[in-house]
Amino acid sequence: MIFALFSILAIYLFSISLLSYGFFRVKKYQKSDKKPQTNFTIIVPFRNEEENLPKLLNSFSKLNYPTDLLEVILVDDSSNEKFQVSGFKFQVSIIDTIRVSNSPKKDAITTAMKHVKTDWVITTDADCIVPESWLLTFDNYIQENKVSMLAGAVTYECDNSFLDHFQQLDLTSLQGATIGSFGLNKGFMCNGANFAYQKTLFESLNGFEGNDKIASGDDVFLLQKAIEKFPNEVQYLKAQEAIVSTKPAENWKALFYQRVRWAAKTSSYKSAFGKVLGLIVFFGNFSFVIGFFLLLFGIVSYPLFVLAAFFKFIIDFILLSVTNKFLSKTKIKSLFLSSLLYPFFSSTVALYSLFGSYEWKGRRFSK
Q1: C-alpha dist (Å) from residue 84 to 93, 200, 267, 304
Q2: Between the CA of residue 313 and those of 111, 167, 307, what are the distances in Å?
Q3: 3-state secondary structure the chain
Q4: In 3D, which of 43, 39, 360 has the Cα closest to residue 193?
Q5: Rounded Cα–Cα distance for residues 357 and 367 (Å)
Q6: What is the C-alpha separation between 71 and 58, in angstroms, rounded?
Q7: Least trusted range by pLDDT, from 81-95, 111-125, 166-180
Q8: Is pTM, for the whole model, over 0.90?
Q9: How do residues 71-108 score in pLDDT, each as one tens digit?
Q10: What was the pLDDT predicted at 367?
Q11: C-alpha distances in angstroms, 81 versus 49, 58, 84, 222, 279?
């Protein structure tokens, strides 16, 4: 038992070290002074977001991008009250989602794609805020590289609470793994809150066909399909001027269900690397949990457990610190306490996602 746990830990440490190496292989991008050329349609699926949408639209109005190259489509997924927009210099329209599958967000994007007239679409979420040079940075990169799909970074706008600090740590680890996997030429994950692709690519992949029975995954499944067919044209935009910020979950229950929703799609990944890495991370954290209980029952000695925990903490910290430096200007807070809690939280999420149901936007979904 003890030998097995340490073997799993060794594999985990090696894998996270590889991701740290991959993170540095993805070069940071700085926008240039190129004249904007790319026509973008921003697609924003939403449901009951009357509080958040005005803030997002306000951030769109501050973009340093020509309004004649910009269009916004808001896709209403059966909100309780109709949202109205007016007074913006850019073109913005609201359409209703046509539901045809078990995935509201995929249906929303598919509905919007029928109205898209531009070459490129970029998706974000209603509870996000985009930076001033968001589109300009994407445009410059597109002009300089042969690319048909671009994944961007997402971070949280946090208050000074342990829940927010814990979520920031969790998201930072996901972003680090995302960037690291791209650096290893094994990209398998992205975030739909900052995700751009050509309309023709979406059509050539038949959109979300093949995974529309899974409620979430409008981002990762499309990414994995694209990488399978056009591996050289799918890249990561590691640019601080293009980082989108979003709101953390309001309570532990909402956070738990959100992470269950994210975890539930892992078994359907097309990426073998993504599946294997997911298993390694799960067993790496689960072995920590088992080790903790073995310590309580006196099966594992205290010095041995502390040594193992120390190595895990150091390897995790390296990836977390370099990723946080890219994502945020602030230091990671509550790191030690969050690191102790995280294996228990993530293991519970992973196990529950195998058979449990979850809530999302006032609806209940099952595995």
Answers
A1: 9, 30, 39, 61
A2: 45, 17, 10
A3: CHHHHHHHHHHHHHHHHHHHHHHHHCCCCCCCCCCCCCCEEEEEEECCCCCCHHHHHHHHHCCCCCHHHEEEEEEECCCCCCCCCCCCCCEEEEEECCCCCCCHHHHHHHHHHCCCCCCEEEECCCCEECCCCHHHHHHHHHHHCCCCEEECCEEECCCCCHHHHHHHHHHHHHHHHHHHHHHCCCCCCCCCCCEEEEHHHHHHCCCCCCCCCCCCCCCHHHHHHHHHHCHHHEEECCCHHHCEEECCCCCHHHHHHHHHHHHHCHHHCCCHHHHHHHHHHHHHHHHHHHHHHHHHCCCCCHHHHHHHHHHHHHHHHHHHHHHHHHHCCCCCCCHHHHHHHHHHHHHHHHHHHCCCCEEECCEEECC
A4: 43
A5: 6
A6: 14
A7: 81-95
A8: yes
A9: 999 999 988 888 888 778 899 999 999 998 888 899 99
A10: 56
A11: 9, 20, 10, 31, 42
* pLDDT per residue as tens digits for the range 3-12: 788 899 999 9
Q: For residue 50, what are its two tokens? A: 């009357």
Short-list 195, 138, 193, CA closest to 171:
193
**Alpha-carbon dihedral angle through residues 325, 328, 331, 332, given to the nearest 10 degrees:** -90
Please answer whether residues 191 and 151 qualify as being in contact, where contact means their C-beta atoms are separated by less than 8 angstroms. yes
As given in the structure block, the two tokens for residue 364 are 């209940």
Average pLDDT over residues 155-171: 92
Specify the amino acid at residue 153: A
Kindly state the tokens that stand for 9.
């830990």
